[in-house]
Amino acid sequence: MMRFDGQNADEIALRLAHIAWEAGRVLRGMENALLDKRIKDDGTPTTAADLAAEQLIIQRLDEAWSGVPVVAEETASTAQTDDCFFLVDPLDGTGDFIHGTGEYSVNIALIRGDRPIAAVVSAPAMGSIWIAGEKALTSPLPSGEGNGFDWREARVRPAPERDLVALVSRRHGDIATEACLSVLSIGTRRMTSSALKFCLIASGEADVYVRCGPTMEWDTAAGDHILTRAGGSVVGPGGAPLTYGHEERGYRNGPFAAIGDAALAPRLDLPVSASVA
Ligand SMILES: Nc1ncnc2c1ncn2[C@@H]1O[C@H](COP(=O)(O)O)[C@@H](OP(=O)(O)O)[C@H]1O
Ligand SMILES: [Mg+2]
């Protein structure tokens, strides 16, 4: 079975950047098409664009690293994981894709054991991309062929004493998340969709993102790794990092908080979720 011979995590992340850039071109080309949407069992929408981007990503991952399992949003139930596997959300924020806000992303993470080691989040309509292997980097998305990245380091900021910037889902709020946020001194709440929330914290533009409602591993793994390598963290109840590859619970995450500054961790009080404990 193909492994990652001679490639370090930063090189893998660069290859993932090209794949996400290409998938982003497919998605941009379908933005204004009249796409039929279907509502999945979890109540979230999916479209032909999700499928087209997923097929392309799976094909490119297979060309680059043949034989490494891929757990992707539209085909998760059929995948068998291994020590190394990819988690793929070809179109995170499908609701935003449909409604034209542009706040959607392509997320790909390589997991080894139960944690990510290389990842990309690209936001095709916003023109930005983030990657991480060892280092977290960000670039504007090239408009021509995918060779024109201009990478610079992504770094979190220290949390201000008060008036934190919190990122909240545009479409999926819940009471437990609000309770958690209410004990932090939030000055600004910015509605943001998809895994962009992790990346904005990784780039020092925001401080905290709390999510107690349902999410899936492919929603968080790539953003988790990018934020972690930019100096932040993503923690569950009790402060432990999230772990990935939980087929036994259908790849569902529990509650989590993404923070740029570790000093915020003691102020978090996430509920313990019985469903994924
Ligand atoms: N009831 C539910 N069950 C599982 N995941 C859900 C869900 N409601 C929302 N999500 C997840 O939340 C993601 C959107 O996050 P946000 O609200 O922050 O933009 C969705 O990603 P997709 O758009 O890829 O399906 C979906 O995976
Ligand atoms: Mg998603």
From TrEMBL:
It catalyses: adenosine 3',5'-bisphosphate + H2O = AMP + phosphate. Substrate binds at E73, L91, D92, G93, T94, D219. PROSITE patterns: IMP_1. It is a peripheral membrane protein. Transmembrane segments: none annotated. It is an enzyme of class 3 (hydrolase). InterPro entries: CysQ, CysQ/Inositol_MonoPase, Inositol_monoP_metal-BS, Inositol_monophosphatase-like. It comes from the Bacteria. It holds the Pfam family Inositol_P. Its EC number is 3.1.3.7. Keywords: Cell inner membrane, Cell membrane, Hydrolase, Magnesium, Membrane, Metal-binding. Mg(2+) 2 binds at D89, D92, D219. This is 3'(2'),5'-bisphosphate nucleotidase CysQ. It comes from Microvirga arsenatis.
